[in-house]
């Protein structure tokens, strides 16, 4: 798959929107960004990547792109949800830029919240491994910032 090639990134930028707050209950609060293009080149999946905050700080992330099939079947709207590693704080309203670097797995509809929590734990471990080999200062630079919610492909 082209998006698994090392060196290819997808970048999405946008303001962090309030989610269902379920992420907090699961132990994995996420920063949610609406995708303007509901189909597009970037398919659903789970990714390792980096999120850049408004002040330029870059935080490693495990990122979900999709419709949360565990809770919404196939009817949910697509969004980008970034779980920032080793981060605590309120990001609502802040504009984040998210680099998706490695496709980890497809979206799944889990039978229970615990199964989703277990999968998220594995995603975080896989994301940590990827970011260790792909430091934030080695990310490709953006020629121009993409409009909110639009996906830009780099490489
Ligand atoms: C790394 C990661 C992987 C995820 N994978 C899935 C998945 O496979 N299936 C799914 O239904 N939801 C997945 N999610 C989304 C969670 O269902 C969602 O974050 C949770 O329900 C909280 O939603 P909220 O942000 O609206 O509160 C994933 C989220 C993250 C951060």
TrEMBL record:
Claim: DNA-binding is one of the keywords in the record: no
Keywords (A to Z) from UniProt: ATP-binding, Flavoprotein, FMN, Kinase, Nucleotide-binding, Nucleotidyltransferase, Transferase
Top-level taxon of origin: Bacteria
Pfam families: Flavokinase (PF01687)
SMART domains (alphabetical): Flavokinase (SM00904)
Signal sequence bounds: none
Top class in the EC scheme: transferase
Location of the Riboflavin kinase domain: 7-132
Entry keyword annotation includes rRNA processing: no
SUPFAM superfamilies named among the record's database cross-references: Riboflavin kinase-like
Annotated InterPro entries: Riboflavin_kinase, Riboflavin_kinase_bac/euk, Riboflavin_kinase_dom_sf
GO biological process, one term: FMN biosynthetic process
One MF annotation (Gene Ontology) recorded for this entry: nucleotidyltransferase activity
EC number: 2.7.1.26
Catalytic reaction(s) noted: riboflavin + ATP = FMN + ADP + H(+)
UniProt protein name: riboflavin kinase
Native source species: Amycolatopsis rubida
UniProt lineage: Bacteria, Bacillati, Actinomycetota, Actinomycetes, Pseudonocardiales
